[in-house]
Amino acid sequence: MKTRTILAGGIGLLLTLTFFLSRPTAAPAAQREGCVFKTVFGEEPLDTSLRYAPSDKVLSSVQEGLSWLREAQQPDGGWGAGSHGRQDIRDPHAVPSDPATTAMVAMAILRAGTRPDSGPLAAELNQATEFLLKAVENTPADGANITTLTGTQIQVKLGANIDLALTAQYLSNLLTYLKPDSREHRRTMAALNKCVGSLQSKQLANGSFQGAGWAGVLQSAFANNALESARSKGAEVDKEVLERSREYQKGNFDADSKTASVIDGAGIVLYSVSGSARATAVEAREVVEVMEKAKDDGVLAPEEEVSVENLTKAGLDDDQALKAIAAYEVYQSSKIVAQQDEVVRGFGNNGGEEFLSFLQTGESMIINRDEVWKGWFDNVSGQLLSIQNPDGSWNGHHCITSPVFCTATCVLILTVNNDIEELAAVE
After folding, report:
1. What is the pTM of this model?
2. Is residue 18 part of a domain?
3. CA dist., res. 63 & res. 72, Å (int)
4. In terms of residue numbers, what domain contains 314?
5. What pLDDT does residue 90 have?
6. Which residues, given as ranges, of the chain have pLDDT below 70?
7. What is the reported pLDDT for 304?
8. How many other CB atoms are there within 10 angstroms of residue 191's CB atom?
9. Out of 3, 280, 294, 343, which could bridge 314 as a Cys pair, Cβ 3.0 to 4.6 Å?
10. Contact predicate 58/385, CB 8 Å
11. How would you write the chain as a 3-class SS string?
């Protein structure tokens, strides 16, 4: 990589300012049909104590990672992970660009503070956006995938439709920073709706998604995340599809026995429990909010705990209360299991799937507005800093080894504090 030290210093100063001084105001999300919990008590303001400033070491690590990613961008505006059959190739310029990897890098740049109209990597972000929009727009509207590439590291390990899921997630994230009446917003929303329609057409009867790879539970988890985010931005998401998707993720963890089903998770507990925690975080948060509102209104005593009976007293009907308590218990149990040392250690080293699972665990806690995320962040960020390569990148030691994909995922983890408002708004 060329001029990395000088470049890192320049980006470092700009990113530090962006992190703490100049976070742009997000465009308002489109109005949509609210969930049953919101009809009970209305919107809850975000508790500012949920924010947690990263250390100087974390900021420096992020800056080096972004510098490396900047140099790794392809002339077409994308980034690539490379072929599963040639994982020995680590040069980011020796592999073709793919949508999944490009979307991950674009999400990392966006989360780190750059916006389409400002920031140290605005040009790179806009080139990536154009790459992804063209990939979607040039795809027939018949449920086809958005890339002709097959056998990429990401597809083989996660699933054939992971490009679609991650691109949809990025487009949802991007909409936050586009003016609602602008051409850019209309174009991005059209592409997002196209992705959502295609993704929904690929759902199986059990709620998972077609084309599962070695750790297919993660593809389904990221498809679920993408649909949740798209729904919160006003995209055309089928409520039944999202419901089946959430139920599938819940079903991968038994709250009573605190055990995970690893059939679709390559036998790895972390992959399954992180998806379960992420998919139940919204409903678990809403349970807490319903309980708090009922206590504030005097319907429940301050010492009352979460139960079906208390949720019905708070205003939910029997079916809603049963569904809510199931999600709440899965979240509470799965987040604990996802943080256990023996689960986090996995193979004893990390592949891209581990990094993705760490990302899901952390995001689930923020969505749930769970203060324990700060302890999780200290632990995981310490691990990530200890394995960062001297050139600023990260790479996996098994499975997904791509330095581009792994670096983007690690930057997303280390900058998760920047998206607290965005994540806490997911419904």
Report:
1. 0.78
2. no
3. 14
4. 4-8+31-424
5. 76
6. 1-48, 85, 87, 143, 211-217, 251-279, 333-353, 397-399, 424-425, 427
7. 92
8. 23
9. 294
10. yes
11. CCCHHHHHHHHHHHHHHHHHCCCCCCCCCCCCCCCHHHHHHCCCCCCHHHCCCCCHHHHHHHHHHHHHHHHHCCCCCCCCCCEHHHCCCCCCCCCCCCHHHHHHHHHHHHHCCCECCECCCHHHHHHHHHHHHHHHHCCCCCCCCCCCCCCEHHHHHCECCHHHHHHHHHHHHHHCCCCCCCHHHHHHHHHHHHHHHHHHHCECCCCCECCECCCHHHHHHHHHHHHHHHHHCCCCCCHHHHHHHHHHHHCCEECCCCEECCCCCCCCHHHHHHHHHHHHHHHHHHHHHHHHHHHHCCCCCCCCCCCHHHHHHCCCCHHHHHHHHHHHHHHHHHHHHHHCHHHHHCCCCCCHHHHHHHHHHHHHHHHCCCCCHHHHHHHHHHHHHHCCCCCCCCCCCCCCCCHHHHHHHHHHHHCHHHHHHHHHCCC
pLDDT digits (tens, 9 = 90+) for 148-197: 999 998 888 788 899 999 999 999 999 999 999 999 999 999 999 999 99
The CATH number covering residue 341 comes to 1.50.10.20
72 contact partners, CB below 8 Å, separation of at least 6: 1, 79, 92, 93, 403, 404, 407
What pLDDT, in 10s, does the model give residues 116-155? 999 999 999 999 999 999 999 999 877 678 999 999 988 8
**Which pLDDT value is given to residue 318?**
82
pLDDT at 198: 94
Q: In Å, what is the CA distance from 129 to each residue of 77, 112, 191, 294? A: 8, 16, 11, 44
> Quick one: pLDDT at residue 260?
42
pLDDT of residue 272: 54
Contacts of 294 (CB under 8 A, 6+ apart): 300, 310, 313, 314, 315
The answer to whether position 24 is within a domain reads no
pLDDT value of position 211: 67
Closest listed residue to residue 359, CA positions, set 29, 350, 14, 102: 350
Answer yes or no: is 170 within a domain: yes
Q: How many domains would you assign to the chain?
A: 1
